[in-house]
Fold these 2 entries.
Entry 1:
Amino acid sequence: MHTPRRRFSLAGKLALLLFCVALAGIAATALFAWLLDNLALGASIGLLLCAPLALWAAHRYLAPQLSLFRALSGSVASFRDGDFSFSLARRSNDELDDLVAAHNELGDVLREERQSLFQRELLLDTVVQNTPVALLLAEPRGAIVYGNLAARQLFNDGRKVEGLHFAPLMARAPAPLRQALGEGRDRLFSFDYAGQEETYHLARRNFHLNGRVHALYLFKRLTAELSRQEVATWKKVIRVISHELNNSLAPITSLAHSGAELLRRGEPDKLGRIFDTIEERARHLHGFLRAYSSVAKLPAPVPEAVEWNTFLASLKAHYPFAQEATPPTTLAHFDPAQIEQALINMLKNAHESGSPPEQVTLAVHPLGRHLRIDVSDRGPGMSDAVLANALVPFYSTKRTGSGLGLALVREIAEAHGGRIALANREGGGLCVSLTLPA
């Protein structure tokens, strides 16, 4: 950007003013000294006459600068109040022009930023208002300060909810919704709405707004999505069951025909091998159906006090493992039969991973209000794709696997209020972690 050449700087103008005042004082002193023929008296009269002249010159010189400073002060106050429409004009070709130019550029930037912010806020409000997630924002005393269209439709028959109080509004809501709010955590709930059952997910978050803590409630309708997932799951279940039934029934049918043919030929001594194979396929089919039944009929856990050394000794009778850490001396509280089944599935997977048996380990770690049980191995681990799907029911990479082992562990963990996590180990292998409330 081209900067015009300055004729005088502020310092130059001030030096010129002082020079002119001094020159006028010398001239007045010389004039009165010559007229009165008395140097001292002439100097005194010249000084008295130059003082008003100096004040007048200073006022004339400083008046534009003082006016500019007042304008800048008022403009900055407007900026502070959010009004960025002010700009200043000055054409003196000195340093103050740079200040004015910087001020005007700042105003332009602030105006553009405010316009951009306004457009973004408008876009955000449009998105939030039209999202299918019902959203309510309540201030600390419970008054609702914001509700989108979905919230108005869900809670107030399409009317505005701003200004209403959260507690009375929720008192008119269905009982399952009130119960979900009372639990104080994110959760799913279902209730009858407009003549059909609807499933929602409740999430709540706290954040600071204008120096105060506000509560944000989000109610997401999941009915359609869950229905699609349910249909997809049933289709997968039917495919898996059909595949397993065919794998067992097809050879049984073939072997039964072969047995009948052997009897017809009078060769009953060869029937033993056929019956053994039929028994093996029937046993496999029975085990497969029992595994499916275990997921479908999982009862609610019945927690009881569990002593770790006794529990782990019983677990070792099913699958051996090395203990990495000394178990806690305090009692745990969980359903021992269900947790034992979960750990058996985890240990079974570890032994079937190809890991050396002596490197299959189990460790119990107290974590405050929770405890974590790690089952680790030194097998090949899992790829990212397998890790992402390992907990999905019926997903298996094993030729004879049902895909229900880890899915059952997940069901048991979540029934206890815990969770399961899988991670590849450094140096190879897999660690499956079961976290439970202590």
Entry 2:
Amino acid sequence: MLLVGLPLVIVTGLLDYAAYGPRFGQALPPDVGWLRLPLFDWPTRPAWLFRVTQGLHVALGIVLVPVVLAKLWSVIPKLFDWPPARSPAQLLERVTLLLLVGGILFQIATGVLDIQYAYLFGFDFYTAHYFGAWVFTAAFVAHVALKLPRLVSALRSGPPRGAPATDRGGPGHGRPGGPVADTRPEPPDPDGLVSARPGPATVTRRGALTLVGGLSLLLAALTIGQSIDPLRRTALLLPRGRGHGPGPNGFPVNRAAAAAGVRDADTGPDWRLTLTAGGRQVALDRAQLLGMPQHTAELPIACVEGWSTSQTWTGVRLRDLAALAGVPEPASALVRSLEKAGLFNRAVLQANQVRDPDALLALRVNGVDLSLDHGYPARVIVPALPGVHCTKWVHAIDFRPGSGG
């Protein structure tokens, strides 16, 4: 499970980092040196792309916690083996083991605290999580390479030779004393994981697997509702993904207007959307925006914490606003928010994100005006774009022409 699950967590995490547009310096951390990923335009199709990658990254990371703990429990004798190394090869293995165990525990602990908004660490989460992921990945690859021959032979050998019939579900199951009483220690193994003086059995292998699998299923049940609207009340482990009140605007929100410092007065009759392109500037009030051709699209919005939802948005196409500003084929666009401070009070959109036919400056959602917490008077919504870059309380967009524009 870990050989399949952990690479998926790693790959989806790196894809999510790429989705933030590192070439614009808006992915966190912005400067990663030689660990930077190949630069490419994050696609807008399929529209649910970021919803799947980020949702899988968070949900799978949570579901694998019992499996990771069970794995660590099963190798406890090796973690405290003394002396720590008897040969250069064993020393290398011990170093990869230290980085592997420390890395996975660090990534799990900081990741869970972050999605709960429990910032108990005195360092930048994004920087630590990114570089920590690379440390863990390198240790994971090295450790798998070192243990691959043993892994292959163990998988080919089938059930341990000492496994009684009762532990494999064969004859004898249900006799007085039960399968635990009939369970026998495994014979010594090449890795020294079997205790030399084992105590009486307390659980069968089947019982241990059932416990781990049951805990993983429980965590999945308490997490999956963050992305499935009818089950949203069951997302007890991710309270910010459970909703935001009743009505058409009752879907989750991370940063409310009060927390962002946006007041009713900022979004009143004097509000204007300013479009700029080179030296040209166009100002529009909300009534003028509503008078422009409106487009409706059902699009998901997905948060870095893992929750997501799909809603029906109505507004003006970004490409129509670009044409109005005099840049029908923009190379990028800088979107600015009324939010006074914060990491995401502005966002740069790529050319394909501005030009997508469903990329909107949304004015309404589910047939009603946006609520203030959801970005009234206007917010950006773009297919497959991370939620924090679907900027709320937009007051200015600077369209930038390409080299030939």
